[in-house]
Every structure is written in C-alpha cells, then in structure tokens.
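Running this now, will post back.
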Amino acid sequence: MCCGTGDLAITIAGLAGYTPQIQGLDYSQPMLDIAARKSAAAGRNIRFTQGDASKLPYPDAEFDCVGISFAFRNLTYKNSLVEAHLSEIIRVLQPGGRFVIVESSQPSNAFIRSLYHFYMRCYVSNIGAWFSGNRSAYRYLAESACHYFSPPEMNTFLTRHGFRQVDYHPLFFGAAGIYVAVK
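Update: finished.
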C-alpha cells in the first residue's frame, strides 16, 4: 500500500528467493509510472495499480500479506478515513494474513525521544522545507512523527481494529519500528 515509486516492492521481489506475486498500490499515477519503469528495468514482474486506500480495488481475502512503509501514519494520523483504511486492510487479508508496517515511532527512552523530536522539528522540518519549498508538508511530517503512536499505543490501535496479534521490532533506538499484525 502507498508504494510510491516502488522501491520497497522491487526490493522485496529481489530478496524473495522465488518469484512472488507482488502488487503495488498508490493514489498517485505519476509515481506508479515511475515504479513500473523501475520495476521493468530491474527485471521484476510487479503489478502497479492506482487506487484509494479507503476503497481497495481487490476482492476479500486476496492477500496473505499487506505491507506499508512510512505511509501508515498518513492513513491514520488525524485522518477522517482511518476506519475505512483499517477495515479495507482487514478485508483484503486472508485469515492469518500479516500486515507489515514500517513507521515512525516513539523511543521509550525519554532522552532519545527528546533528541528525536528536536531533530524532527528543527532539522527535518527546516531542511526539508528549504530543499522542497513546501514548508507545510515538512511541518506536518515533523509534527505527525512526534505525536504518532508509541509501540503500546500502536498495539492497542491495531488490536482494536481487528488484528489478533501485534509484534514490534524497534529500529533506530525506537524512532521507527516494524510492526507485524496478524489477522
């Protein structure tokens, strides 16, 4: 989901050790066009589809795994469609299927958490705005990352929305993490 220019899908296809059936979905057709070109150049057979995460264009129980990398926060943080996004993910997963989320998180250590928040608000927000010319986008990135779920909050959030088990693997001292939620 929210595959953008396809880097993660292409990497997964290359690491699989077999030929998996991978589909990438994104709202932006120009990004999908780039993803398709990159996938073809890498010799990967990945199907890219333009679609809305609140109305996934797939049948029920279509996938044994759904993944999203650094975009779940956009689907859930102060998003009025959060319930639709989660119900669609549950709908397209097979029973026992996994939802793998790579996302920003809150470090459990207060000192590291304060350094992370300072870095996001002072460096990422300002440098991103300077390079892109889009101050509001990078302000949103910093603020949403600093206010996003902690691992226990994410566990509660996902189980409340229908997942029966959630495992968490911290990255970068807990500033990001990998969540594996089982339907």
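The CA atoms of residues 107 and 173 lie 6 Å apart. More later if anyone needs it.
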